[in-house]
Specification:
The complex is a heterodimer of chains A (431) and B (357).
Chain A (H helix, E strand, L loop, with lengths): L22 E10 L2 E11 L4 E5 L6 H8 L7 E6 L2 E2 L5 H7 E4 L11 H6 L14 H13 L15 H14 L4 E5 L7 H16 L3 E5 L3 H7 L2 E6 L2 E6 L1 H4 L2 H8 L3 E5 L6 E5 L2 H4 L11 E5 L6 H9 L3 E8 L3 H9 L2 E5 L7 H13 L2 E4 L9 H9 L4 E4 L4 H4 L3 H10 L3 E3 L2 H7 L2
Parallel strand pairs in A: 3-8, 3-9, 6-7, 7-8, 13-14, 13-16, 14-15, 16-17, 17-18
Antiparallel strand pairs in A: 1-2, 1-4, 4-5, 9-10, 11-12
Chain B lengths: L2 H25 L7 H10 L3 E5 L2 E5 L8 H36 L11 H14 L10 H20 L7 H24 L5 H9 L12 E2 L2 E2 H15 L1 H7 L3 H6 L4 H23 L5 H13 L3 H25 L6 H18 L7
Antiparallel strand pairs in B: 1-2, 3-4
Helix pairs in contact in B: 1-2, 1-3, 1-13, 2-3, 3-8, 3-11, 3-12, 3-13, 4-5, 4-6, 4-7, 4-11, 5-6, 5-11, 8-11, 12-13, 13-14
Classes of the chains: A alpha/beta (431), B mainly alpha (357).
Chain lengths: 431, 357
């Protein structure tokens, strides 16, 4: 192999310049014991791709990663890294092509951080030789990129969990491989470390590496990966950009859970909320004998209520809510008709008229646990003129919710039909 | 400081300590010999090749007027025993270091896969029922053969589909040790008049050592060369051993041929231990505590730990044997190492410093 020039920045491509995919898995089947863990999986990963591998526990994510680095022998199928079949390569050759950031980050030996990172050079250093300048340069580069350099001389047993995971990332970088495998790299990290880890990986991928990360948390996967592969029941059930893959239907099938996908207001990435069983159950006994309700929502307080009503098959309308409110997103995701008004504007007469129409058509009005603001005064006044019974969900105390005394007064007058501390309770009182 | 420099520095310091221990030990005994005389006696034996009168020969550059008796005591009686102890300590400690790293288990010692038990059965059988030993092997070869057969057997039992899980190996080793312990006890029961000899061997001893114990073949001492070769081989795998501490799967990911490396480390440690045990009997604790102590001093890096632990084990066994032979009644050295080593180990344990590797 060619040794890298020590002044060179990241000789990632030098040794493995191929046009094909960095990782090519075709028709891979793996049986562990009596269980078929993977059956006929095919996956290609190109340079510049950060692939998020998601799926329920036991779906085969870790097995797929292990197969990708040749740690287990598949029953059938083929794994190629940078154009070479992995089972024909020596451990050393594999170590120069694939680096793994392991899930379990405990190290109980008091090696210095630098020594741990230097172990990443193992596949590059000959048995009867020591690290040369290129090796030391690679170690320094890896430690700088991962911000490990500042505590390079501390024992790895004495650094925090977040720092230790960065040390392991640095070790993987020191291997200078075209392919990086990460197994739950941030599962135990705080948001800050999670962000830094993925930003480092993203930057490396932009420079031409390929990376596959098994990620439990769907939001994390959606946020950082450009491509998401959903593994379930031993196969790949979806593969594509997060917006296309992370849909309620796909997640429902893969994870056997009801979920709502909304757009995160900050990152503009899909956000997945799995619903607890009592919200999700379609044949819940506590369903009210109403056929149509109108919900007064806002401030993101009505999500569970809307979801539950939707699952129960109750025809629901919402409004008025300001555009961009996450209640509006939920309603949108559920396909609920919504009265929206401009985010920075007032509720205009047209919006009030539409709301009144919905309220008239409904069997009941439910006021969610919203903040009682001035903006709601005309809404409450209008609803009070109509004869539809009004119910309320009160998860917080009135004092906590009161922003405008006028709104609070009207609210108190309005809620006649029933008050409940939670959504299920309210639905019970409606029967 | 670079690893190479630290390894060299520590090794040089310990080599000096070993040399001092050897010289002092050679002076201690029923007849006290001054250190200076010991050094001179050793120097006298140094021979360098020379071309005298066009013919290749050996020349002894040093010559001193020493009392003949002192020279004989140092060179014939004490030095063979001391150097044999140094060699055995070196081998046991190196093998113990490797086994602890290999098993990632602080209780591992050179005998963990049954090497010593196998050697004991071979040795005891050759004393009690020599007729049963094939090829008329003597005690040492029988012990060595027993050690190797056992190690291989344990390995074979624990291996499935070309993989040898460390936990299985450990448990198989314990079971086989127990079984072989039963065989040794049974032989002991029927040892009759040779019982004392058997017990003595089992306790570990270095007495009656002569230059013959170094297995000279054509004037070349084979045993030290053999131990040195084994040691250098282990040293060449020190970096792999470091990486293996992280776990086998990770080691494989970092380019280590895990199963091949395990096989090699096991085989080399087993022959090294087997050779040591064959000449000296079962000397306990050296291979367990010396690596632990040195790990506390120099850290877990095997590139430094392996040579320093080996040299320290060497010096420790020489010192222990000096105690064993200088009392009113000569003791088997195994008693001394265990009697000194166990309390020291407990002391370290109480200070909570030896919980892990």
């Amino acid at each position: 192999m060619s040794r890298a020039d020590p002044t060179d920045e990241g000789p990632i491509d030098r040794d493995f310049a191929t046009d094909g995919p960095v990782l090519s898995i075709s028709d891979l089947s793996v049986t562990l014991g009596e269980t078929d863990v993977l059956a006929g999986v095919s996956l290609d990963v190109e340079r510049g791709e950060l692939v998020g591998l998601v799926g329920p526990n036991g779906a085969g994510k870790t097995t797929l990663l292990r197969a990708a680095r040749g740690s287990l022998s598949p029953d059938s199928g083929r794994v190629q890294i940078a154009g070479e079949a992995v089972d024909g390569l020596s451990a050393k050759a594999v170590g120069r092509r694939v680096a793994t950031v392991p899930q379990d980050t405990s190290i109980s030996f008091s090696f210095d951080v630098r020594e741990i990172v230097e172990m990443g050079r193992t596949p590059h250093v000959p048995r009867f030789g020591s690290m040369d300048e290129a090796d030391h340069a690679a170690v320094e580069r890896a430690m700088e990129r991962t911000e490990v350099a500042e505590f390079a001389d501390r024992p790895v047993t004495e650094v925090s969990g977040g720092e230790r995971s960065r040390v392991l990332l640095a070790r993987a970088l020191a291997q200078e491989t075209p392919l990086l495998l990460l197994d739950e790299p941030t599962a135990s990290l705080d948001p800050n470390h999670r962000l830094r880890t993925f930003e480092t990986v993203s930057a490396l991928v932009d420079e031409g590496k390929a990376a596959i990360a098994a990620i439990h948390d769907l939001d994390t996967a959606a946020r950082y990966c450009d491509r998401i592969v959903v593994v379930a029941d031993g196969g790949i059930v979806a593969d594509g950009p997060p917006e296309a893959v992370l849909t309620g239907a796909t997640i429902g099938d893969a994870f056997d859970v009801d979920a709502v996908v909304t757009t995160d207001p900050v990152t503009q990435r899909p956000r997945v909320t799995a619903l607890p069983d009592d919200l999700a159950a379609a044949d819940d006994p506590d369903i009210p004998p109403v056929e149509r309700v109108h919900v007064i929502a806002g401030g993101g307080r009505a999500g569970p209520l809307l979801t539950r009503l939707d699952r129960a098959g109750v025809e629901t309308t919402v409004g008025p809510v300001s555009a961009g409110d996450s209640d509006a997103d939920v309603a949108d995701a559920l396909g609920i008709e919504t009265v929206e008004f401009d985010a920075f504007g007032e509720i205009d007469a047209a919006a009030l008229d539409r709301t009144a129409e919905y309220v008239t058509a409904a069997d009941a009005v439910i006021v969610a646990d919203v903040d009682l603001t001035d903006g709601l005064v005309p809404v409450f006044d209008r609803v009070g003129e109509l004869s539809t019974p009004v119910y309320a969900v009160e998860e917080r105390s009135l004092a906590e919710r009161t922003v405008s005394q006028a709104a609070a007064d009207r609210y108190r007058r309005l809620r006649g039909g029933g008050v409940a501390a939670s959504t299920p309770e309210l639905l019970e009182s409606l029967t | 400081m670079s690893v190479a420099r630290r390894a060299t520095g520590w090794s040089a310091a310990l080599a000096v300590a070993l040399a001092v221990t050897v010289v002092l030990s050679a002076g201690i005994g029923p007849v006290a010999v001054p250190a200076e005389t010991v050094v001179k006696a050793v120097l006298e034996a140094v021979a360098v090749p020379s071309l005298a009168g066009g013919e290749l020969g050996w020349r002894r550059p040093f010559e001193y007027s020493l009392r003949k008796s002192n020279r004989a005591i140092v060179m014939r009686i004490r030095l063979p025993r001391i150097l044999l102890g140094a060699l055995v300590g070196f081998a046991l400690s190196a093998a113990g270091t490797v086994m602890q790293g290999f098993f990632r288990n602080p209780m591992a010692d050179p005998s963990i896969i049954g090497v010593s038990s196998g050697a004991a059965v071979g040795a005891v059988a050759s004393i009690v029922v020599p007729a049963l030993i094939p090829f008329g092997l003597g005690l040492e070869p029988a012990a060595f053969a027993g050690a190797l057969i056992t190690a291989f057997g344990v390995y074979a039992i624990a291996t499935e589909n070309g993989k040898t899980p460390v936990a299985t190996l450990l448990l198989a080793g314990v079971a086989i040790q127990t079984f072989l312990g039963a065989v040794t006890s049974f032989l002991l029961l029927h040892s009759g008049e040779s019982m004392e000899q058997v017990v003595y061997w089992l306790m570990g001893h270095l007495d009656n050592a002569g230059w013959g114990d170094f297995v000279p073949v054509a004037g070349v001492p084979v045993l030290p060369l053999f131990v040195c070769c084994c040691f250098l081989l282990l040293l060449a795998y020190a970096r792999d051993l470091n990486v293996m501490l992280l776990g086998e799967e990770e080691a494989a990911g970092l380019g280590i041929e895990v199963e091949r490396t395990k096989r090699l480390l096991l085989a080399v440690s087993a022959v090294m231990t087997g050779a040591g045990v064959a000449v000296s009997g079962v000397i306990g604790f050296v291979g367990l505590i010396v690596p632990h102590v040195m790990r506390l001093v120099v850290g877990p890096d095997h590139r430094i730990l392996l040579p320093t632990a080996a040299l320290a084990g060497s010096a420790f066994l020489v010192a222990a044997d000096t105690v064993a032979r200088s009392g009113a009644q000569e003791l088997p050295v195994g008693i001394v190492t265990a009697a000194v080593g166990a309390p020291f180990f407990l002391f370290l344990l109480r200070k909570r410093r030896v919980h892990e590797l």
